[in-house]
Amino acid sequence: MRNILLSPIGKSPGAVTGIYYALAEQDFPVQIDQVVLLATAMPRVQDACELVRDVIGADKVRILPLRTATQPSHDFNDAATVLDFIQQANAVLAHGRKAGNQIYIGISGGRSSMGALATLSAYVYGAAGIFHLWVDESIEAHGSMEILDGMLEPEYMAILKPPREKYRLVSIPLTPFDQLWDRGRLGELLAERPEARQALLRAVTDIEMQQLEQLKQRREISFQEAAGRLREIFAGTELQDAVEASIKIAGSDEKGLPWEVALKPYIKPAFWKQVRRDVNDWENWKAGADRLFKLVEAVATPLTIAYLALALGIPPWK
Hints:
16 helices
């Protein structure tokens, strides 16, 4: 089991490093094994990421870049970037829980809306804790990269790792999701309105599915190019593992990885019969981009709905 700190980051790296060190200095210390940063491409934000890596250690810090529908995002100012942030935060929490890790969330870095969305993800997926770092005005006033750039290491370390009397680690109450929502009633309502259920549970993949549709419109595309673009489109999302399995299945003439074995764990039983019939039909097709696109389309919607329905505790389709 590893302890992971997930945090958005802006132009003040101490919002991340401060929580990292403060967790280790509690009465019941938590030693963070890995820090995961959600970062825009804004130059000063990237500088802040690099300073965090220098201070904590490059091997312990992973940076997840935020993106718009078509390119890296330079600020948290469009709907596609917001959706990407939600996707990536959800993926870290979901994969961390599956691996048995403890995920701690820092909400002091980046835009305030990032912290709010990260908190929402924690309420849905669960987390070991949510923390805000309060610091003395003398620390906060010197925390941006514009000021830190002009400091020597002893000076900036006093900002990035403030003394205990200069900070307070604030724990945000984390109530299990099922105590906040009557999930059984929610499931009943959505079962009566399948279109509402589908809209709710597919929201996290709308951007990816739009990109998949655009990719399909290209008249000529090789299997290798299609596979590469699909890996880029679905990287860091709940569909990443299923897309990788689809690439192996669609591009291989070997029977070493039967599609049933690769994909069945991702698909709820209610969807299994239809998907199995469709994919069996495609087994006779030649390996190529068209087959790959259809296979990804077949697993994308069932996987997303099944995955989030499980996380939300919503009963299977009736």
